[in-house]
Specification:
Length: 139
């Protein structure tokens, strides 16, 4: 574990093949259940609040960040690339968001699965949607 100004900067949370790099990345992660591991967070606040999820990848500040409740995020196989991409996840699986705020739950949680959103704000406030793809916003 490596700290910066008293805050975790790098850690792997035990023997579960996780990698968290960035200020507060993986912070408030409990790893409470049997299905936890093989997660990668690169950037500040990535994969925060992760409880039981596995195979998640977050790259960019606040990417693939769970709802503001330690251990409440239990989704699997989510990928977020970009600031706030796939943010506010609680139970969604197999979601892919590429671009700033893509598949960001806004004021609600992302509980749906099998969604793909590419482009800034695409899939914003998606909530409980399933099997959507091809949302594209070009700015």
């Amino acid at each position: 574990m490596i700290y910066q100004d008293g805050t975790r900067l790098y850690h792997d949370l035990g023997d579960n093949n996780n990698l968290f790099f960035g200020k507060n990345s993986g912070n408030l992660t409990s790893g409470g259940g049997g299905g936890f591991g093989s997660n990668i967070g690169l950037g500040s606040n990535t994969l925060q609040y992760l409880g039981d999820g596995q195979f998640n990848i977050g790259i960019g500040t606040n990417a693939v960040q769970g709802w503001d409740d330690p251990g409440a995020f239990g989704g699997n196989s989510n990928v977020g690339i970009g600031v706030q991409a796939v943010r506010n996840v609680t139970s969604g699986n197999k979601n892919v968001g590429i671009g700033e705020s893509s598949l960001y739950g806004g004021s609600g949680a992302i509980t749906g699965s099998d969604n793909v959103a590419v482009g800034t704000n695409s899939g914003y406030s998606a909530g409980d949607v399933w099997n959507n793809s091809g949302v594209l916003t070009i700015v």
